[in-house]
Amino acid sequence: MLQRVWAAMAALWAVMAVFMVLALRQAPVAPSSTTTTTHAVTSSSTVATRPSNGTSATPVAAVTRSS
Amino acid sequence: MRTLRRHEFRAMGTECSICVAFPIWEAAPARRAIEAALAEVAAQERALSRFDPSSDLSALNEAAGSWIPVGDRLLRALQAAVDARVATAGRYDPSVLPAVIAAGYDESFDRLRPRNAGSIAGWRAGAAIELDPAAGRARIAPGAAVDLGGIGKGLSATTALAAMRSVSPRLTGGLVDLGGDIAVWGSAPDLGAWRVAIADPRAENRPLGVLALHGGGVATSGRDRRRLGADRSGHHLIDPSTGRPAVPGPLTVTVVAPSALEAEPHATALAITPVEDAAAYVALRPQLGAIVVPQDRAPFAIGRVPLAESEDLIEAVAT
Q1: Distances (CA, A) of B62 to A25, A38, B55, B104, B140
Q2: Given CB atoms, is A17 within the 8 Å cutoff of chain B?
Q3: pTM of the model
Q4: Torsion angle of alpha carbons B221, B212, B182, B273, nearest 10°?
Q5: pLDDT in tens, B225-264
Q6: Which of B28, B182, B225 sits opposite A64 (nearest CB)?
Q7: Residue B224: its chain A contacts at CB < 8 A?
Q8: What are the E-state strand segments in B202-313?
């Protein structure tokens, strides 16, 4: 029984280690004159990037306008 | 779990951004995708800018009347521009550059100094643009000059998005925004649609509505910005039939199309089309949707417009 508990704990630590390595791989884009930001989102949230030009309740990814 | 990386930068004389949605274990491919898109936008700008004397386009304009070798990017852009001139029945015309300059748009807008309109004597729309892809060369009519404004950003957003997909096909989705001309692919990190707000030219602090897109492109054209002339009362939207800044037409128009490349010239065309003719224009092109903001009445939508929110600012869709 004790061996099974130890085996389960070892497996859990192995999975956590994999996720830590993956997280550390997230380096920013090559340096430039601009900024890069990363936002984690959950499966139920909308894209949280920037306000939709003011007062819209839900954030949007971009705004189309004449330029 | 998925995440979003956003990169903001300046190119083509305007504010730009790239968004990538990806599973957290695809961080490296997402980074490569953004780098590929940035490189593509930079390469397009080097080839297509009329403000860069070393660009392929500047060389073509300088050699008007003669065949000259040009790169693949300019060849593709010229072909797209010629196709768009046909698709818009001449309302978008890449050969309006002399008229654009006469209207006062003779410098990058960042550097533009107000001055009065110049002469367009002798200028005619529809100048010949001949392409020889097999030999990698092109020729424009003697005295003509080409401006790829009105298609260049839409084309570049489309090719930048394609570059992203090419280097990292397993991403969840992507979005390339070049000054409001936007190409979209796939899903946002929540696996829903990408949400794109439509700026209201009459009120800076609120959007007209929000589009929900899983693909295709969006472009907006209008006379609310880039004012020209000594008193800044003119605008840069040239009517090819007169060679002068268009008189009829809405304040702005936003077009939704299967690609940003297709959306931008149709937005340019609708921006010089009388408001009462806009529905007929879109009806002949069922792949398009448009949101028209007239100068003197309420905005309205025509055709396929995937609105997620309109906040009651856009009238019922006309058919």
Answers
A1: 49, 44, 11, 20, 10
A2: no
A3: 0.82
A4: -20
A5: 655 555 555 667 888 888 888 888 999 999 999 999 999 9
A6: B182
A7: 66
A8: 207-213, 215-222, 238-239, 244-245, 252-257, 289-293, 300-303, 307-309
Are B148 and B80 within 8 A, CB to CB? no
ipTM of the complex: 0.87
Q: Do A41 and B28 touch (CB under 8 A)?
A: no
Q: Which residues of B174-209 are buried (b: 16+ CB within 10 A; e: fewer)?
A: bbbbbbbbbbbbbbbbbebbbbbbbbbbeeeebbbb
> For residue B230, what pLDDT is reported?
56
Structure tokens at B18: 């790239």
A50 Cα to chain B: minimum distance (Å)? 10
How many distinct structural domains can be found in chain B?
1
Residue with tokens 């300046």: B10
Q: For residue B129, what are the domain limits?
A: 50-140
Q: Is residue B102 part of a domain?
A: yes
The residue among B283, B286, B264, B318 whose CA lies nearest residue B48 is B264
Q: Does residue B302 sit within a domain?
A: no
CA distance A20 to chain B (A): 11
Q: What is the CATH number of the domain that holds B67?
A: 1.10.3980.10
